[in-house]
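A quick word before the example. In earlier lectures we treated sequence and structure as two separate objects. From today on, think of them as two lines of the same record. Here is FAD dependent oxidoreductase written that way.
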Amino acid sequence: MTHLHQDAVIIGGGFYGAAIAVYLVKQKGFKHVVLIEREAALLTRASYNNQARVHNGYHYPRSFTTAYRSRINFPKFVRDWPQAINQDFTKLYAISRRNSKVTSRQFERFCREIGVEFRAADPVLRTLFEPRLIESVYVVNEYAFDTLKLASWAARELAENGVSVRCNTHALTISKGRETPLQVGVRTNSGTEQLIQSRYVFNCTYSGLNQFAGDFSGIQSSLKQEITEMALMKMPDSLCGLGVTVMDGPFFSIMPFPARGLHTLSHVRYTPHQHWCDQPDLDPYEKLRSYHKASRVERMVRDVARYMPDVWRATYQESLFEIKTVLAKNESDDGRPILFERHTTLPGCYSILGGKIDNIYDVLERLNEVV
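And the structure line, produced from the sequence above:
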């Protein structure tokens, strides 16, 4: 088994892992950084299989902290990744007359409290909604991102900054090192094994945060894992230039998906297929691989069309199935704070989880404190 010495090992080649690797080199002066990704390419799992929404806070009226942080981070993300931002659509938030956890008045007050812009939708846009079911419709300031363009950014920045990217490589163990504080045991798809000695290890594996042997004892926070379905749809002309979210309860979202030129359709009731409490001996990715991926898109469309009849004319293309991981403590308020956990028995090892792409700034702030 060969040995390699690094300043830092980042496990997980999603957007967070790539951004952290670039930050360590450009802002902290690290010279030797390696990024480990078990898939064949970067940003192909949760970073790709999602709504592609750049949040501006509107989505979280029951979690002021999450909403406010999104509002703060939103303009930063648009500034730092302009090549990946899609603003060419009108974003609508609608309030249901029934079963909503927030009223129109509460939503308006909430928007004022976090300092985001909104205005009542004009009559033409309102005609897209069933008035007996929808109380109010608002035009808001929210965008989508193109994951393929983010992946191109990541590949270019990692190469230019000398980060060693190891795809098709599975990190198996995190342990105390011999010559450095930490060591990571990895195995390539071809079966080659290696121990990487390092001063820092950043575990950015999202759903796989607890899937390591060695001296790694797992994270302290409880995680909830879900198998989710995001339906990709070709919308009719009347809905093509729109993104829609109906608040706040058992409703739905329709968002542009720039990487494919389509829209995602997600439904609070039908998008989650299965959920469980995370366990170290139950690999979520293996569970997803063996799951029978039968689409629920017909049920999604049937319910969504009650609120927006034009959805009947949408054409289903395919579904993106993925694992969604959230902190169990935030199930009640739908908040999405970051997890940035230091492992006291493995000095220099940190586990990181973010629920939204704009959380990256919260992660980098914490990173700046510990490195």
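Notice the following. The radius of gyration is 21 Å. We will return to this example when we discuss secondary structure assignment.
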